Amino acid sequence: MMKLPLLLLLLLLPRPGHTAAADSTQPRVLTLAEAIRLAQEHSAEARSARHNYRTAYWNYRSFRANYLPSLQLKSSPYLNRQINRVTQPDGTQRFLSQNLLSTDLALEVSQNVWLTGGSLSLQTSLNRLDELKLGTKEYNAQPISVGYQQSLFGHNAQKWERRIEPVRFSEARKSYAETLELVASHTCTYFFRLATAQNNLEIARANSASADTLYRYARGRYRAGSISENEMLQLEVNQLSEETNVMSAQMEVDDAMQEFRSFLGLADGIALRVTATDSITPFEVDPAEAVRLAYANSPEPETFQLRRLEGRRQVSVAKAERRLKADLYLQFGLSQTSSLLEDTYRHPSQQLYASISVVIPLLDWGKARGKVKMAESQNELTEMQVVQAQADFEQNVRKMTRQFNLQARQLHVATRRRQTAQRRYEVALKLYLAGKSSLLDLNAAIQEKDTAQRGYIGTLSTYWSLYYGLRSMTQYDFERKCALEHTLELPVED
């Protein structure tokens, strides 16, 4: 009689990866590392991060090019056939018919001077004027012309751009790396959502099979008079409930799989199965080291610096609008005119042009002063907000580090709890089949086993989410003790 309970025990014990029915198609099995790789390559979030980084890269290239010499070839020919009012040498004016063709060509090199905010230019040009009615032509050449434009007391926008734009690009570069690690953290969420659903389905199928076998076994014991009808009916109710649980769990798997496929950018027809690894090397992260790495690698410090610089720039703009405004333009060059092309480059005469425009604010009823005070007040507010944001940032890093270290210990406990609950279920099942315990005890053991298994999956999910969240803030792999490298192939410069 002992052989039957032992046989039933073997049939009732859950087997890893056992399913009631095999899938018609083999699913694609994904580990967490493989899922993260796919997400960082194909997910919409990762693709958006790459586009944002490329945009920031080209913006930064445009900024740098603005402070390099630019070379331009300019020409503006025109034909004038109309009657115009022309001033005569004696001062009188007459309407004369003109038939002119003007052609010109100029080569100009310009350079912005960020230190002063001015602009320096060097130009050579040649102009030809044809009087078509008379059949005459005239040349005007400027072999060389040097010009300089400068605002004397205004806001130096170029100087502030040189302070801000490198910080902005550094922020974009670090944000790209941070986003990829956040993608990994989000992948953990979807991965373990499917893992939880799969685990629930496996539990439901195992419990359904066990409930069915127990019910059939109970009917035999009821006929033999070993158990009451109430106990048999209870087992039948359990068997029917477990069948419903299987159907609900299958729907949960289908929904989680669809969400995961969509996140990874995979086709709808691909079936997925995830495997959560149990091989985790325990380690702890030093909160002080995490804070140091976060300040060095996170985009948040650049964001703080940008907010400070933007606030100071607005103060500079407001103060410049209140002061005396003066714009200076100087041009010196050589020029010559002749009816023969070769003569225009012989014995050129000097040309000098200088102009200065001045605006002196006399009375604006305090408008400019009000703008300065507003800018200064906003700058002080920004400084206070940045100081608070820095404190919150450091606190969040330390908090996440503590949570991760605690979660690593909780994972160890959850692993032991799962193993103990499984052993407790096996003992309870053996005792029930031997008639030495009640159905209530068996149901309690089943409940504890299922809860421990679900708790283990949840703890594992939280562990990896915290791990990749910490990696995103620090850009450091604490498990392998090395810095992360997220490179993006950028277009080759033309």
Main sheet specs: 7 strands, antiparallel
Q: How many β strands by DSSP?
A: 11
CATH class of the largest domain: Mainly Alpha
Reported by name, the CATH topology of the largest domain is Outer membrane efflux proteins (OEP)
CATH level 4 superfamily of the largest domain: Outer membrane efflux proteins (OEP)
- Given as residue ranges, the uncertain stretches (5+ residues, pLDDT < 50) are 16-24
Distance between the termini: 86 Å
Order of helices and strands: HEHHEEEEEHHEHHEEHHEE
Radius of gyration: 40 Å
User: What's the mean pLDDT score?
Assistant: 87
Architecture of the largest domain in CATH?
Up-down Bundle
Summed up, the helix count is 9
Structural class: alpha+beta
Counted up, domains total 2
Q: Roughly how much helix do the residues carry, as a percent range?
A: 55-70%
Q: Rough shape?
A: elongated
Relative strand content: 15-25%
Summarize the structure.
By secondary structure, this protein is of the alpha+beta class.
Keywords:
494 residues; alpha+beta; Outer membrane efflux proteins (OEP); 2 domains; two-stranded parallel sheet; 57% helix; elongated
